[in-house]
Every structure is written in structure tokens, then in C-alpha cells.
Amino acid sequence: MKQAMIAEVQRFCIHDGPGIRTTVFFKGCPLSCAWCHNPETIKAAPEMLYFEQKCIGCGSCLAVCKKGAHRFEGGRHTVDVSACLSCDRMEECALSCPAQAMAVCGRRVESGELLEQVLLDREFYGKEGGVTCSGGEPLMQADFLGEFLSLCRDRGLNVCMDTSLQVKWSEILPLLPMIDLFLVDVKCMDPKRAVRYTGADGRLAAENLIRLSEAKKPVILRMPLAAGVNDAPEEMEARRRLMEKLNNVVRVDCFAVANHAASKYRAMGKEAPEWNRGADLREMEERMRRETGGKRWERPIFTERPEQDAGM
């Protein structure tokens, strides 16, 4: 069976598609969004995470580490997690910590094994629930998805694809019959702004979004807003023009970017970004709905996402 690199299988998710869902977070992403709330899924390889607040200072890790990644100075334990990337003993090092202050993010899994993990939750899915492939960018591992989604379809599972669409259409097309719903972010419409804040100009994603409309595949659009980045009037107008080309949008989630991933960034040895501090989030979201023409649609497709899950 084919294998994929995943970060986590999360159960009982209620914001990754309809109903109760099991969400598989794939590792590897072609983007590098400045506000990414799953930064540990960007790199397509295992990574060491260090949660300093859990450390009890026992020093067990020193006996295992061969890369000199650990420093105990001034009563504080720091870890150079970048040194762990070239180490084949990451798992052993993480297991040596009795406080679980270290964890390896990323493991290989076969399609059959992953299906078994998903099926553990099947009794909770009801009529609407199912499995959601997220990340990272799951479509970067399209070859694996072809096999895994076929298994899901054989079991009658509802499948959602949470994707940036930043992949070739030829990777998406063979998977269309096995996907019930796409969840797609519209991040930045201006190409230069998109490159600066996401790492790609967004043209490929927009083209693929239009192709999904032509293929009549249902889509939930997600519009994350960052004050001073993608909330300008010209951004709103560009989104409105894009939406007018689509006939497959079942809902639009409009929400302000939050700062829920701070602990993940710190665990990766990175500075946690901050967004929308001091911004009037309600006003920003309402302006998005108003200026993109949400009220002119035949049905009320703009919705609000719960506060606790408003990061993107």
C-alpha cells in the first residue's frame, strides 16, 4: 500500500466540514502563510517540537542527544530543534523525556492503516460527518490520496478536502469523483501581496477554484482577514469579482485571523506572529461581507465561525 507523511489524526472535529469529522493533517505545504495556524505541517518531513513549559529539567535528553541540541543554562533548558532535522534518533530523544516536553511531529502511514484509524469514529459520523483531509496541503500527496480516498469511498465515507488548491489541476482531477466537498481559503487576491504573505501569487489557486465550479463540485470558501494585509477595498472588490464567477459555493466563512498557534511556533523555535491586535474584528468582518456583495447572493451564504476556531 502507498504511504503518506502525516502530522496528526484529530477526532471529533466540528469545524472541518459538516457533522462530526475525523481530520487527517498531512505534512508538506507549497505555501508559507504568515498567519498559518498549523506551522508544524509546512515541512514535508518529521520535526522535533519542544514545549519548554513542560520541561522539569531532569536532563534525561542529554544522554540520548548526539547533535548537541540541548542547553541547560541559568536554570533554563533550551533546544535547537533545527539540529534535530538531520538526526535519526528524534523518536528516541522524545521518548526519553518523562514530562513529554518533546514530541516528533510527522510519521509515515499506509492507506489501509489510516483507514482503520478513521473507521474507529464511524459510529459518530451520522448522516453528515466523515473524514477531512487537511494539512499542510493534502493534495501534495495526491498519489496516496488516490488510494486512500478510494478506500474511503468503498466504505461509504463522506470526504472533505481542506486545500489551498496550490497544485496542478492534473493532481486534482482524478480525485474529484471521490471528494464530496472542498474547503478553500481565499487569502490574498493581489499577486504581489499574496507572494509576500503566502509565498505564491494565488493565480493557480484561483484558476483551480474556477475549474471546481465548472466541475460542479461544492465548495465552502474561507476568507481569513488580517488587518492591513488583505482587508483593503481593492482586495474586497477582487474577491467579489472572483465569487461572481463561481456557481458552486455553498457557504462563505468570513473571519479575522487569530493567534491560536503561538505555542506551536515557540515549540518549533520560532517567534509567534501576532495579527489583528487592536483591530475592530466585527467591523472588519462586516465590511468584508458588505463589500464583497454577500447580501446580493440569492441565499445567505456568509456565516460566522466560532471564536475558538477562528484562526487560519
How far apart lie the N and C ends? 33 Å
What is the percentage of strand-forming residues?
A: 15-25%
**Can you list the strand order of the major beta sheet?**
7-1-2-8-9-10-11-12-13
Helix and strand pattern: EEEEEHEEHEHEHEHHEHEHHE
Provide the low-confidence segments as ranges: 295-300, 305-312
Structural class: alpha/beta
Characterize the largest beta sheet: strand count, sense, and whether it forms a barrel. 9 strands, mixed
Which topology of the largest domain does CATH recognise?
TIM Barrel
Quickly count the domains: 2
The helix tally amounts to: 9
The overall pLDDT, averaged over residues, is 91
- Return the CATH architecture of the largest domain: Alpha-Beta Barrel
Short descriptors:
single chain, 312 residues, alpha/beta, TIM Barrel, Alpha-Beta Plaits, 2 domains, nine-stranded mixed β-sheet, two-stranded antiparallel ribbon, disordered C terminus, iron-sulfur
Describe the fold and architecture.
With 312 residues, the chain is an alpha/beta fold. It has two domains: 3-44 and 107-309, Aldolase class I (TIM Barrel), CATH 3.20.20.70; 47-105, Alpha-Beta Plaits (2-Layer Sandwich). The protein contains nine helices and 13 strands. Strands 7-1-2-8-9-10-11-12-13 form a nine-stranded mixed sheet. Strands 3-6 form a two-stranded antiparallel ribbon. Helix 3 (142-154) links the parallel strand 8 (130-134) and strand 9. Helix 2 (111-119) crosses helix 3. The chain is globular. Residues 295-300 and 305-312 have low confidence and may be disordered. Belongs to the organic radical-activating enzymes family. Its cofactor is [4Fe-4S] cluster. It catalyses: glycyl-[protein] + reduced [flavodoxin] + S-adenosyl-L-methionine = glycin-2-yl radical-[protein] + semiquinone [flavodoxin] + 5'-deoxyadenosine + L-methionine + H(+).
